[in-house]
Design a protein that fits this description.
Length: 241
């Protein structure tokens, strides 16, 4: 644990520990070194060794780090991207990027906070409210949660229906006033403003309305499902600044 940054020492379960004990992710463990070498080479050896083992600072990322639990992610263009909404709904739907871009958008500016400690203040995200897509699909009365899947083929996330309907939860098309770049989960990612950034699934491809919350990728590995910034994952006070 002595290689953890000081701001992580109060955390009950570090990602390094998780990686060790759960033998995680064959995926994470086996692919990370390659990725990391790749990025370190690219950045001239300056990449920070994050305990997720998933790379380092994004060049020109303004403090963002690149995260992917897979070693490569296919690219989706405006012509082959689809976002499906299905499960406990009256009208299952497949949106193209043009469909999504034609819908009314919301722009939010909040701090981005990763659970490992890094933080990017005042980051604009822009997109369609998730609640709009859920209303359009017609959610069944029996539904209680929403599950998100990604075209990287591995990552997943979940929210309760109440959380999913918050006004600060977006299907994001833009970040920092630019179309979402591939590295940041483009063309479309989830953006859950009030929660740690692991809830904001990149490369979003599926929204499935379910009865109950199914833990997502990191939740299965020990992180909180209700990931409120400052009130989860062993932190009991809000970040300062
Ligand atoms: N599909 C996918 N989404 C993901 C992740 C991932 O590995 N795969 N990592 C999560 C975590 S832990 C963080 S901090 C943010 C990082 O977003 P960024 O790469 O745009 O900085 O994405 C979240 N969403
Ligand atoms: Mo994160």
């Amino acid at each position: 644990m002595n290689s953890e940054r000081p701001d992580e020492q109060g955390k009950p379960v570090g990602r390094r520990v998780l990686l060790g004990t759960l033998g995680l992710g064959a995926l994470g463990v086996l692919t990370a070194p390659t990725l990391q070498r790749g990025l370190e080479g690219f950045l001239g050896g300056a990449a920070d060794k994050d305990p997720t083992g998933l790379t380092g600072l994004l060049p020109n990322g303004g403090g963002f780090r690149y995260y992917s639990v897979t070693s490569s992610v296919p690219r989706k263009s405006a012509s082959d991207y689809r976002l499906t909404v299905d499960g406990l709904v009256d009208r299952p739907t497949a949106y193209t990027l043009a469909d999504l871009r034609a819908l009314p958008r919301t722009r939010l500016v909040h701090d981005v906070q990763c659970v490992t400690g890094w933080r990017v203040p005042g980051t604009p995200f822009e997109g369609v409210r998730l609640s709009r897509l859920l209303d359009a699909a017609g959610v069944h009365a029996s539904a209680g949660a929403v599950r998100f899947t990604c075209f990287d083929g591995a990552y997943s996330e979940s929210l309760t229906l109440d959380q999913a309907r918050r006004r600060d939860v977006l299907v994001a098309l833009r970040m920092q006033d630019k179309d979402l770049a591939h590295a940041h989960g483009g063309p479309v990612r989830l953006y859950v403003a009030p929660m740690y950034f692991y809830k904001s699934a990149k490369w979003l491809s599926g929204i499935t309305v379910t009865e109950d919350v199914e833990p997502g990728y990191w939740e299965k590995r020990g992180y909180d499902v209700d990931a409120w910034v400052g009130r989860s994952n062993g932190r009991d006070d809000a970040p300062t600044g």
